[in-house]
Write a structure and sequence with these properties.
Radius of gyration: 26 Å
Structural class: mainly beta
Number of strands: 15
Order of helices and strands: HEEEEEEEEEEEEEEE
Low-confidence stretches: 12-52
Largest sheet: 8 strands, mixed
């Protein structure tokens, strides 16, 4: 009889421990994304204090930065480097084509300067990458674009502005979000 009571006590104590452990495990969920440990507090009931991990992706979570030469010579080809920056505290998986970054040149009247190529061929490929918080992402199209979209030329002297644009998608909670994000204009001086 003592052994049965002792066994019942052990089982009861074990169930109490098991229940308290499962309650604690509900509070913190840990997952791994490309080797990076992500911990989310899932036991919050107050909606005003949710972590950014539960928010839908929005345009305000990203920005475009560019590296542009300050001055160039008329007719000389120059390169622009565009970077997509994740300004949120969330790790996002983004999907894009070979032409994720495009660039437009405007004169001092705001008129678009057309590219010299009549046709630009782009392989219809899909590329996926993980963008960590505060990280930069650069992709130049490699061999999947017939004309290097980051190589530009201006044939008249003057002051110009360059605007970069990135197009990409994020799939979040089985919903597809499409983004077209533009950079702040950067000035360039074209000399004779």
């Amino acid at each position: 009889m003592k052994k049965t009571k002792l066994l019942i006590c052990y089982i009861s104590f074990g169930l109490i421990l098991l229940t308290s452990c499962s309650e604690d495990s509900k509070k913190l969920e840990t997952s791994y994304n490309n080797g990076e440990k992500i911990t989310i507090n899932s036991d919050k009931t107050d909606n005003s204090d949710k972590t950014e991990q539960t928010k839908e992706p929005s345009q305000s979570m990203f920005r475009i930065d560019m590296q542009v030469p300050k001055t160039i010579k008329v007719g000389d080809s120059f390169e622009v480097k565009g970077f997509l920056i994740n300004t949120s505290n969330t790790v996002w998986s983004i999907f894009h084509g070979a032409d994720i970054f495009t660039y437009a040149i405007y004169d001092n009247k705001g008129e678009l300067i057309p590219r010299h190529e009549d046709t630009i061929a782009v392989n219809d490929i899909g590329i996926s990458t993980t963008l960590k918080p505060n990280s930069k992402y650069k992709y130049d199209g490699q061999e999947h674009v017939s004309t290097k979209l980051y190589k530009l030329t201006v044939n008249k002297p003057g002051e110009y502005k360059i605007i970069g644009q990135a197009e990409f998608n994020i799939n979040y909670n089985n919903k597809d979000y499409e983004f077209q994000i533009k950079s702040e204009p950067q000035e360039i001086i074209v000399k004779k």
